[in-house]
Amino acid sequence: MGKEFPKDFLWGGATAANQLEGAYQEGGKGLSLPDVLPGGKERMDVVNSPDFDFKVHEDKYFYPNHIGIDHYHHFKEDIALFAEMGFKCYRFSIAWSRIFPNGDEEQPNEAGLKFYDEMIDECIKHHIEPVVTISHYELPLNLITKYGSWKSKKLIEFFERYAQVVLNRYHDRVKYWMTFNEINSAAHFPIMSQGLTNANGGADKKNIYQAWHNQFVASSKAVKIGHEIDPNLQIGCMILYATTYSYDSNPVNQMAALKANQENNFFCADVQVRGHYPAYTKSLLAKYNIKPEDIDYTQEELDLLAKYPVDYIGFSYYMSTVEEVTRNDLNSSKGNLIGGVTNPFLKSSDWGWQIDPEGLRIALNELSDRYQKPLFIVENGLGAFDKPDDNHYVADDYRIDYLREHIKAISEAIDDGADVMGYTPWGCIDLVSASTGEMSKRYGFIYVDEDDHCEGTFKRYKKQSFDWYKKVIASNGADLD
């Protein structure tokens, strides 16, 4: 058994448009970044090659994001299943290229806006609070190929127009928003959040920091727009958080862990939450031979950041990481998204991600102490090989065990004093993996009959974890058995 959570705690689940909607050329949608990302474990190798051309090559690759789980045509069925689990909220994203197919149009695509009208209304019909990510790893492709992606200041203008449209359209039904998904992930794989890779400047850290600055400004503009429309709207940032340990008590490794924390976990949040660049910015830039004056910024932009910080911190938590810089005889934790060495005290998932529930409690304490803002765990979950029986039933005790321990950690962090708004486990229904483009890396409470090449019946089936999570929500976290 667990402890009951705060009365208004937002239990739910999370997805992203590009990973489940499919229908990539329906309803006036334009091409987006994920539409040119091939499926398979070699996805990132292909993307990081210097000759990656941001085009579809169907003669060489398969593109699972084109189909997703066909949520575009199944969203009513899927949301009904979420409601059956008792979701209080559902975090999803709007596909920018459904609203502005090329990203730089003057007028939005009405068919795209109507689709999200229907999705939002369906949530509300089932008493589910929509939680919307404005940009979740799905930049319109034209903004990459024509303008050079987020290293161009032109994208601030295009994002502002996009944010203005969606905030005006849905503000009466959507209270909770986030601007950029895992904005800090560009420290390790800038292709997803910034549209930058080795082929278009992603290897140059100056471009990464310029893109971040432009995104910070765009995010503040969205906060400004939202608060002017309705001061009660809650607009947050969203970061990838990996609790960072030193391998041992060697002061050199302790300092390495501190520096890694600053660069990987805190830098983007420091700017978006506190409204200004942190004191360590100059030394962080110097690490890559960048001077502050190398970044194109204005005082007006800095004033905007100061005036319009975010209201809360959304974050993903899947793993922790370990820093060790004094030895070369330790195994690197290659499965972990941001590297580090293997933690001998932890087990790993099927994909090599180290499982650390206590690290989530630490993360919540660290973020709470640093920012004194509400925290929203908007991604957490176990990607695993699920093996359905002849009746398509998945006995996923391993997923239940993972989630149970992380929910206990959240409860303990709340007792520690952290202000936690809610919890939306990632991939509440099976969807295409962002990192590998696979369906076989499954996270959901709902099994979708579909393989890595999008072959199958696309029927939805409840896993064992479906009824378990339903019980957790019904008891407000008190019943975890």
UniProtKB/TrEMBL annotation:
Record GO terms (molecular function): beta-glucosidase activity
GO annotation terms (biological process): carbohydrate catabolic process
Pfam families the record matches: Glyco_hydro_1
Keywords, in A-Z order: Glycosidase, Hydrolase
Catalytic residues as annotated in Swiss-Prot or TrEMBL: E379
Listed GO CC annotations: cytosol
Signal peptide: none
Database matches in InterPro entries: GH, GH_1_N_CS, Glyco_hydro_1, Glyco_hydro_1_AS
Keyword Hydrolase belongs to the record: yes
Family according to the record: Belongs to the glycosyl hydrolase 1 family.
NCBIfam families in alphabetical order: PRK09593.1
Protein name: 6-phospho-beta-glucosidase
Organism listed in the record: Xylocopilactobacillus apis
Lineage: Bacteria, Bacillati, Bacillota, Bacilli, Lactobacillales
Gene name tied to this protein: pbg9
